[in-house]
Each structure stands twice: as structure tokens, then as C-alpha cells.
Amino acid sequence: MKTKFLRYSLSKLNQVVWHYAELEKVSDGVYTYLQSKDQYREQDDLIAIVLQLENVFFEYGAYSRRILAGQNIAEAGTQFLTAFHQIVEQTMQEGRHLQLLFVRIYEELGLDAEHLIRYREEHRERLRQKDEEKKHYRDEQRRQTEKQQQERLRKAGEMFVAGEFISCEDFIGLCNQLHVPVALRTLGTLRRSVVELSLNSISYTRMSGKCGPKLDGCFALVKVMHAKLTEKS
Of 1, 105, 106, 142, which sits most exposed with the smallest number of CB within 10 A? Predict the structure, then answer.
């Protein structure tokens, strides 16, 4: 005869539902049933463990035959049943997530589950506040990073107009900031070979035994950048 027990829904997230299945008794209060059969390997069949606390049956978990091999299901199930109420209280004391299934078990046992429900709501609110704090921190860090980058580029622009060298990274950053279009070939040369740029000179690296990079596009970009910066000032 099929037994009625509580378990999490397989189709709806975090919803506890009633389910019916033929249970095989392992020991007092501990049962199993075949939840799903693997069409290729029997060892991958999913076996669910169902526990009985007083008159309430509930699914403890589901594992492959491979994982359950050599495990003492009866002992593990009995220990969980014996410590169930202690586990619930310890979970709340330590501020950890309390399963909705535990609330439903309390309700089906006819116990007062109000403090469990209240704990879950408060725990959810704490998590929400922590998420907001983390988001606020990340947003603030991003703003500070952007502010620092803008200040660095402002100084780089002033140095460039004054005829001083600036790093290739800052030069590309100024191009992006001022919406100066950069040809893909020129961008490749900048990133691959150029170290520093000034109004009248470009410092670059080259591999031993090879010719230096073609810098015509870079020099043209320098003129455009200077015009943009002086126009802005």
C-alpha cells in the first residue's frame, strides 16, 4: 500500500507537497523507495529515504545507489529522528537556514510552529539586509574606482597637453573618455608595442631581430587627442 509523506516539490521551488509511494522498510521509522530509475546504470538509480516521526512521514533525501552503497541508512535515519527537535533548535540558535519542511513537520505533529515561521521570516529579512549592504558596498567601491580613474585621466590629460609622457593605458583611457575613434590596427599597435606617448614622441618596445612597429596611426591619433584636449580646455 502506498504511504503518504511530505517532501519538496520536484517542479516548484521551495514548496512542500504530499507525495505517495510504496515504501520499503529498512528499520523502525526508516524507509526507502525508488524515486527514479536510470536507464543506463542501475548504480545511478535515485533512492529516496523516508523517515517517520510519530505519525508523520517525510522525505529525508534522495541519493544514488552508488552513494548509498556501504552506508548504514538505518543508523543515520534513527540518529536524525532522535535529534530532530534538537537539530531544529540548534539551527535557529546558530542563525542558519531553517528548512520549510521542518515547519510543515511541526505543523503535522500538532506542535506550535509559530516561532519557526517567525524565525524564517526574520532570517530572510537578515539575508535581505545583508544583500543590500553588500550591494551598497560594491556600488560605493565602483564609484570610488571610477572617481579615481577619472582623476588619473584628468592628470594624464594635463601632462599630455604640457608635452609630458603618459602611459599607453592612460592614453587609451583618454581616447575612450573623449570618444576619440581608434582604428583596430592602431589599437593593436598601442597595446602590443607602445609604452608611453607624448606630443612629440612615442616610446615603444620591439622584439629582438625585428623591425620596430609602424606608428603612423599612433602619431595621427596623438594629434587628434591633443586637439580634443586643448579644445576641451
Answer: 1
pTM confidence score: 0.69
SS3 10: coil
CA 97 to CA 103: how far, in whole Å?
12
Tell me which amino acid residue 146 is.
Answer: E
Question: Which of 51, 48, 27 shows the shortest CA–CA distance to 37?
Answer: 48
54 and 109 Cβ atoms separated by less than 8 Å:
yes
Q: Are 33 and 62 in contact (CB under 8 A)?
A: no
Give φ, ψ of 39 to 5 degrees.
-75, -10
122-138 per-position pLDDT tens digit: 999 999 999 999 999 99
Nearest to residue 124, comparing CAs of 87, 93, 96, 94? 96
Q: Which cell is 96 given?
A: 542558519
Q: Are the CB atoms for 19 and 66 separated by under 8 Å?
A: no
8 phi/psi in degrees, rounded to 5: -75, 140
- 56-64 sheet: strands from edge to edge: 16-22, 2-8, 56-64, 46-53, 30-36, 24-27
